[in-house]
Amino acid sequence: MTTTATEDQARKRVRITDPAELSSSTRSSVTVDFVTRSFASLPTPIKTLASHYTEKLTKLQNKARQRSITIDKMAEDTFIPTSARIKFELGATQKVKETATFTTLAASTKELVETFQKTLKTNMLTVAKMELSSIQSDINTTILEAIRDLTIITVMNHFPDSENHPNAPRALARATLEDHFGTLRTFSTIEPDSLFLRYKEITADPTLAYEPGTMLAGDRLHIACLIPELFGILKKICVDSWSEQLDAILKKKKALALDHYVQSTLTEMATADTSMILDREPTIEPAVIKSLIAKGVKDATKDLQKTVARLQQSIDRSTSKNTRGAPRAPSTKKKPNVASSKKATPQPNDPKKSNDSAAESDNDTSSEKGKKKQTPKRLKFTKRNNPTSRNSASRGKK
Asked: Is residue 186, in this structure, part of any structural domain at all?
């Protein structure tokens, strides 16, 4: 059983339904199919009346079934309707809650809420039973109205001069009910003792209520051939149509049960297979598992360290390239004067100064970026100004 309620009915009565209950479209299709099969051979007027009462009775019987389900559910001691559920607790500060007086008041409040819920549930159950009784009364009235109308139209169809047989419908209805009421009342609450009195009220018959077994033999003989025909139509309307609805509900319930069994069986099989696979797996000692985990972490850490080192090297190379290509800061050293350097040409007789000047020229750099170093001009010594030749000459004179 499930409870359902729409948003606009949240504060109203909750409807309790059966999971196997047919939808409105399914109930309608079952009824239409039954009507098509059952009344196809009847004359159109009779078929129309029979179809009308079949559909009307089926709807009423569905309502009665739903109300019966609600009553059975509400009769359970542990069930509280949604609209009667009250979540209320006496509140106070923690200091007050610790007092004995508050404990007594809280228990008394809880009892009041529970008593209120039970009283509300009892009243709701009473109203539900009243509604079921009203629906059942409508079912009984519809059955008697169907007997009245179909009796009249059956007589009219059989007797072309039906106006000459004014008592035939009354006799046919009484004889049919007297013979077959036990079957026709299968899904009704009409009591045999009050049957003919209620039928008299439905038909507004001015005569006294019929007493079973008092029909004259001539009156029964006059309509005897119509009793099986009328009973066959009434049985389809009052009994067979609802039996077909119940069969459809039973089929749906069986389908749900079979589907549930298949799903649960497959789930159990899958669980069992998984358990077998896990059981067949070799067990590993905790120490071995711990060492494997440690090794995996260590290997992963090494890989990460290598990756970090490669990235660091790449960053360092990129930084060094940027440093070489950047413009240099201006030198604080005083640039040598080119004119003075030309004037300060080393004397021929001072080779040390000449060598020092050449070395200083090699270390000199240009202030412009990217220019090649200027190679210093080397002094050419001739025999005339070569100090070595002079010294040798002077030694020869001596």
From this structure: yes
